[in-house]
Amino acid sequence: MATAVNPTVILPRTPKGEFRNEPFVDFSKYENANLIKDALVQVGDMLGHEYELVIGGERMRGSAKLESHNPAKPTQIVGIHQEASPRHTEMAIEAALKAFETWRYAHVEERTSLLLNASRIIRERKAEFCAWLTYEVGKNWAEADADVAETIDFLEFYAREALRLSTATTPIQYPGERNELLYIPLGVGAVIPPWNFPFAIMAGMTAAAIVTGNTVVLKPSTDAPTIAARFLDVLEEAGMPPGVVNLCQGGPAVGQAIVEHPKTRFIAFTGSKKVGLEIHERAAKTQPGQIWIKRTILEMGGKDSIIVSSDADLDEAVAGVITSAFGFSGQKCSACSRAIIEEPLYDVFIDRIREAVPKLTIGDPAKNPNMGPVVNARAMKTIQSYIETGKKEGRLIAGGNAVETPEQGYFLEPTVFADVAPDARIAQEEIFGPVLAIIKAKSYDHALEIANNTEYGLTGAVYTADREKLDHARRVFHVGNLYLNRKCTGAMVGAHPFGGFNMSGTDSKAGGPDYLLLFTQGKSVAEKLR
Ligand code: NAD
To answer: Which of 270, 320, 363, 523 is most buried (most C-beta within 10 Å)?
Structure first.
């Protein structure tokens, strides 16, 4: 009979109190700013190291390498990684299958302890992880801190949720029987995260999978392999048994191999619509030897709108749109890429945006400007081509240019187009960069109609002082995450379960009370009482 996996390593820990979001660091305080500056120096000395694959707890090298680069200084190598070969992915699946045979039966406290230990380690080394995020994907201090805080939140929240799920029971007890509803794990999962929240989303999907008793083959983004390798170290330090999470670095080919493998039971993916749909198709095809229907949890892109009604508080609306559009250079699935303004306020709103946007500072995120670089040369090119399209589809009122730096980083000005038609390409397609389209609406109803006219349905916000308008938006604004009189980015674990409608994904609601169910299957047991 299988018992606890590794009781001597993972010290049982219980969550300390109710879940509370990790507070954000106040960098206006001298001592906090110094902590991050010191961490940037220390991590700066660790750049360029070589990392290995982690399969069944063993470190492995491959013949092909991949490098991650600092997008603010592309010649600076952040980490050198091994690209997994088909043999490695096969070994990783085998290692995950082997570990599943014990981990699936590990006591829930053992699994939650792993997450709580990991959260403690990360909390103690917060500034260091922020620095890695700054170097690897170009986050400024506050954006990096938010990513690390969300990582801690996911670990703490899912640990508590797993304990709650372990006490689930049937709605009624049938007379003469003992009835149970057990949420058991699925098996080996492929976890495929994006680069833009390379810590929180990567760790969050992994944590949800393992705390419910699954084992994982983790394939991080090629733009953010180092932060994932560092997370593997944290999990091992936290007491993870070998094979529970296996790290296979690489690009689409590695992703495809683990998605298609007949022993893969589920895929947790966050990324673009294009890749999400491709995974959906590949996972649907039954492979020889496969004995289940693969489950897919697919969180994808967005084309998110903020509606500003004629009665809105203009200062708040302008600030909310700018933060949502240009935070992390617009590289968030939740970023506001469409501001839909009711006609009476339109001209004054444009004036205010035209005045405020050029004041945003751009530069090396290590020095904490408002905006850092975009992630790589390919992203820069794509965004620039959308800017050219925007010049034909709208009136350029701010930005539009690349920003030259001595290190040739991938910097773009925050860019705004006014008078954009609701069906223009820049109003419909996800750009994933610092580009905002402003659209004029004839009325509030018209604004809502425009807001709902894309194939996506991720986030949205409304600024209005009118209670009836707020209630109307609650009913008809078709997005997974609706925000009223606040920005449309910055979802908080527990408070804003996150996931979108339509082509934004399967609405899995990460950080919410239903999320862990997606990583389990319910087993109903009825025992006749004697
Ligand atoms: P992406 O789709 O290019 O890549 C995501 C992951 O999929 C990466 O690990 C990548 O290597 C892998 N991949 C690429 N091709 C693959 C294939 N054929 N098979 C299997 N795996 C493959 O996305 P990205 O550029 O890393 O991230 C940005 C996108 O993610 C944006 O569209 C953004 O809106 C979306 N996103 C969505 C959410 C959400 O919660 N809905 C959150 C963050 C980001």
So the answer is: 270
- What's the CA-to-centroid distance between 529 and ligand 1, angstroms? 51
Sign of the alpha-carbon dihedral angle for 160, 161, 166, 167: positive
Q: Is 256 in the pocket of ligand 1 (CB under 6 A)?
A: yes
Is 500 domain-assigned? no
pLDDT tens for 133-169 read 999 999 999 999 999 999 999 999 999 999 999 999 9
- Residues 271, 219 within the same domain: yes
Element (H, E) at 66: strand 65-70
Domain span including residue 312: 304-492
pLDDT beyond 50 at 380: yes
Residue nearest to ligand 1 atom 20, measured at CA: 255
| Alpha helices for 1-125 (secondary structure H) | 30-44, 86-103, 108-124
d(CA 235, CA 512): 23
Residue nearest to atom 10 of ligand 1 (CA): 221
Determine the Cα angle at 155 with ends 159 and 227, to 5°.
150
Distance 196 CA to ligand 1 centre (A): 9
Note whether 521 and 459 are same-domain residues. no
Spell out a b/e string for 155-186, using b for 16 or more CB atoms within 10 Å of the CB, else e: bbbbbbbbbebeeeeeeeeeeeeeeeeebebb
Residue keyed to tokens 């862990």: 516
pLDDT tens digits, one per residue of 122-131: 999 999 999 9
Question: Which single residue is written with the structure tokens 């419909």?
Answer: 428
Pair 324, 260 in one domain = no
**Ligand 1 centre and the CA of 272: distance in Å?**
4
Check pocket membership of 251 for ligand 1, CB cut-off 6 A: yes
Q: Is 128 in the pocket of ligand 1 (CB under 6 A)?
A: no
| CATH code of the domain covering residue 33 | 3.40.605.10
Q: Kindly give the number of the ligand 1 atom that is closest to the alpha carbon of 430.
A: 32
